[in-house]
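Risk register update: the risk of archive-format incompatibility is retired. Evidence:
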Amino acid sequence: MIFIAVKFTVRPERSAEWLDLVEDFTQATRNEPGNLFYEWSTSVDDPHQFVLLEAFENAEAGEVHVNSEHFRTAMAWMPDVVASTPQIINVEVPGTSWSAMAELTPRA
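Archived output:
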């Protein structure tokens, strides 16, 4: 799978609305045939930073994503909302989903 982590630092005056702004983009991406997951989180250190974890079945599915209309639409408006260029990690990893952490399990 293609695993991608992206940190978006949003302009302080726009950060309260960020998740609403990306809602259509998020839903459209989650509905893509090759999308495995697409999840947003907020940084605990910076209230204006949002972390996106996403995965696609393969490189072809990732290519479909970046060539989609909803991706192009998002890339058109996001420069007006982000405070800096997003930071990204994009790697190919084995598997198709999250794995269980071997070092930690709940006590009975």
